[in-house]
Amino acid sequence: MLSSSLFHLQYCINEPLPIIKIFMRILIIEDDEHLRLSLKRGLESEYYTVDHIEDGVNGSYIARTHDYQLIIIDYVLPGKDGLQIVKDIRTKGINSPIMIMSVKGDPTDKVNLLENGADDYLVKPFTYNEFRARVHALTRRNYKISDEVLTIDDLTLDPRKTEVKKDGKRV
Q1: What is the distance between the alpha carbons of residues 110 and 82, in angstroms, rounded to a whole number?
Q2: N or C: which end of the chain has fewer CB atoms below 10 A?
Q3: pLDDT-derived band of residue 144, with 50, 70 and 90 as boundaries?
Q4: What CA–CA distance (Å, rounded) separates 130 from 56?
């Protein structure tokens, strides 16, 4: 069953064939309010569902108790740092991709986080285009298309064929 808070459908009319995009749920754990809200707005403009938390303790808890397709974590946070959050998430057996953001560009920090379960490390400052490209790459790797054809009344969605039909006719 699809939860409306996890997936949104968008019909792309500029494509030669109808394309269905299924967007994902992302968690941002970042204490800089301006950056956190800017990233949230940018991702939501691309139809991602975004939750955000400003501290490490609550962020770690939320990441371990909710389902996210991507978790974005600042390395230096109040309460609990990014490395400990990554360890908490991986210890719980959660395989969601994790992106670390940090002003620390030291290769030792990067290697330590990547070896402990982070999937990407983005050094601040960064452009939104680079951030967005990394988000797309991480979510693309982790996303699997369902074989299940969804039907609601006279509307059917076939994710494998990227096809929507109403009353048996392609929309």
Answers
A1: 11
A2: N
A3: low
A4: 24
Rounded CA-CA distance 16/1 in Å is 29
Residues recorded for the chain:
171
Amino acid at 130: E
Full-model pTM: 0.73
Angle in degrees, 0-180, between the axes of helices 107-115 and 82-91, rounded to the nearest 10:
20
Q: Name the percent of the chain lying above pLDDT 90.
A: 64
DSSP state of 102: E
Whether residue 24 contacts residue 6, with contact meaning beta carbons closer than 8 Å, is answered with yes
On average, the pLDDT of the chain sits at: 84
pLDDT at 1 over 90: no
Any residues with CB less than 8 A from the CB of 72 and at least 6 apart, and which? 26, 27, 28, 29, 30, 39, 98, 99, 101, 135
User: What is the C-alpha separation between 94 and 97, in angstroms, rounded?
Assistant: 9
